[in-house]
């Protein structure tokens, strides 16, 4: 099979297209022919070996796929612990879900990792309550664009999205965000970003921030929280040091910092089922509209990562292993 493999850590340049033997399923797994592979920001960390779990070489990146079992079985969307950038994958039965009729590969891939993350950020980690204000960092991205919609659906009183360009801010507003903020305000002074978030909330502190950047954006977001506010951190996109948070700073305003990593939900299949059994029907009904980004040939995987790192993309990026 054709696959993307890395034999050294680094940037997009370390990804090579190679021919490898088909993977062999173990007990409780099936072999699938892949029609589309999902691309996530975490993949850019994986190939650098800069993410939460240490990686072992050689490896095939990629954590999600849509495909059919050998012999033309039902189309499923699934999660993997690696190996997704390939023509064939093996997946655990408990981490695959049937794709409803009328849901595209891209839509299914948008909700399996990014959608499940948005679902659990709001439901499991932050415990969104009716009428609360929610800040979604990177509100035009894969997780953010879904979190904006879910927060509104579940009763948020005000949704504020950050996005790095006028076009992305307009997209976040089309998805329902009541206000948008440019995260570049945090580049020089986190206080300016804090002020902008509060201004976007009518001059009031905010109840919740879903944060995946780190650095000054994290610091500015934390300062924007109201008493009993929650900041859920689930990414490190800025690749810069994030200031430590002393316990006293949390106690002063009765605020919380919560970490989230979807891998812990994957270890509890019922948690993934709860999200996927909610999200896929929403997409099929048209109640949740994933933002579909680019579809790249597998042979253009380096370009896909370059575009993602340069913030040239919105929504869900996928690879086509047939090209």
Q: How would you briefly describe this protein structure?
A:
The chain has 323 residues and is of the alpha/beta class.
How is this structure best described in words?
By secondary structure, the chain is an alpha/beta fold. The chain has two domains: 164 residues, Quinone Oxidoreductase, Chain A, domain 1 (Alpha-Beta Complex), CATH 3.90.180; 130 residues, NAD(P)-binding Rossmann-like Domain (Rossmann fold), CATH 3.40.50. Helix content is 33%, strand content 25%. The strands form three sheets. Strands 3, 4, 5, 6, 7, 14 and 15 form a seven-stranded mixed β-sheet that branches. Helix 2 crosses helix 3, helix 2 crosses helix 9 and helix 5 crosses helix 6. It is globular and about 60 Å long. The two termini are 12 Å apart. The mean pLDDT is 95.
Which features would summarize this protein structure in a list?
about 325 residues; Quinone Oxidoreductase, Chain A, domain 1; 6-stranded parallel β-sheet; 10 helices
């Amino acid at each position: 099979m054709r696959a993307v493999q890395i034999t050294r850590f680094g940037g997009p340049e370390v990804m090579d297209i190679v021919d490898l033997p088909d993977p062999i399923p173990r007990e409780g797994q099936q072999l699938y022919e892949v029609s589309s592979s999902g691309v996530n920001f975490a993949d850019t960390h994986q190939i650098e070996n800069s993410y939460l779990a240490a990686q072992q070489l050689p490896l095939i990146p990629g954590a999600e796929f849509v495909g059919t079992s050998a012999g033309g079985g039902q189309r499923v969307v699934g999660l993997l612990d690696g190996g997704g950038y390939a023509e064939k994958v093996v997946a655990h039965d408990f981490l695959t879900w049937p794709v409803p009729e009328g849901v595209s590969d891209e839509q299914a891939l948008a909700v399996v990792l990014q959608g499940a993350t948005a679902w659990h950020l709001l439901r499991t980690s932050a415990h969104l309550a009716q009428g609360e204000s929610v800040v979604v960092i990177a509100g035009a991205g894969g997780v953010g664009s879904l979190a904006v919609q879910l927060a509104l659906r579940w009763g948020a009183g005000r949704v504020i999205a950050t996005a790095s360009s006028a076009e992305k801010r307009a997209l976040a507003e089309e998805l329902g965000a009541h206000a948008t903020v440019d995260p570049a305000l945090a580049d020089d002074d986190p206080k300016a970003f804090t002020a902008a978030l509060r201004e976007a909330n009518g001059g009031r502190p905010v109840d919740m921030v879903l944060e995946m950047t780190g650095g000054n954006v994290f610091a500015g977001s934390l300062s924007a929280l109201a008493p009993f506010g929650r900041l859920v951190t689930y990414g490190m996109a800025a690749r810069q040091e994030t200031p430590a948070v002393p316990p006293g700073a949390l106690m002063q305003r009765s605020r919380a910092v919560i970490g989230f990593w979807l891998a812990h939900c994957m270890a509890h299949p019922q948690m993934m089922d709860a999200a996927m059994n909610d999200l896929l029907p929403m997409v099929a009904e048209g109640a949740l509209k994933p933002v579909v980004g680019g579809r790249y040939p597998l042979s253009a995987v380096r370009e896909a990562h370059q575009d993602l790192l340069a913030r040239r993309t919105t929504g869900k990026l996928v690879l086509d292993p047939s090209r």
